[in-house]
Design brief:
Blueprint lengths: L1 H26 L8 H23 L8 H4 L3 H35 L12 H23 L1
Length: 144
């Protein structure tokens, strides 16, 4: 959890500073900072996927849970939570599987970002790591 919090803090800080730096350099100094999109792409994907895993662990994802309005029995609510947890687990297994195929394909390619030349496998690796953590956390949520 601490590593995820550090990744989120550093990633958000880098994205914010890059946006400020690009805005100041473009509109005040009339200089276009080449490659800023490449850095933002890399940090944005890591922040997005790490944030998804972090919020899954904390169980703070956005939910459209209307069952509590209609279902009053605690035993029925437990069954509904179990079914929802199972569906989440199946979805996270599918997404992890897809990301593993995508990342293995990405590692075979030699694609890079257009300006700086950052290998895109580092961007795509964020999906694999993020979904791995989401899957890991969903297993424990279902057990709980």
């Amino acid at each position: 959890m601490k590593v995820q919090e550090v990744v989120l803090l550093v990633g958000c800080t880098v994205m914010m500073l890059m946006l400020v730096f690009e805005t100041v350099s473009r509109y005040i100094f009339h200089y276009d900072f080449a490659g800023y999109e490449d850095i933002v792409l890399l940090t944005c994907m890591w922040v997005y996927m790490t944030g998804a895993a972090y919020q899954t662990n904390r169980e703070k994802l956005i939910k459209a849970d209307l069952t509590s309005l209609f279902v009053k029995k605690e035993s029925t609510m437990k069954v509904i939570r179990l079914v929802a947890g199972f569906i989440s687990l199946v979805a996270s297994i599918f997404l992890f599987y897809c990301s593993s195929i995508y990342v293995s394909w990405a590692f075979k390619q030699r694609a890079t970002t257009p300006t700086i030349g950052i290998p895109l496998k580092f961007v795509q690796l964020s999906m694999f790591v993020g979904y791995l953590f989401v899957l890991f956390y969903n297993v424990f949520i279902l057990i709980e």
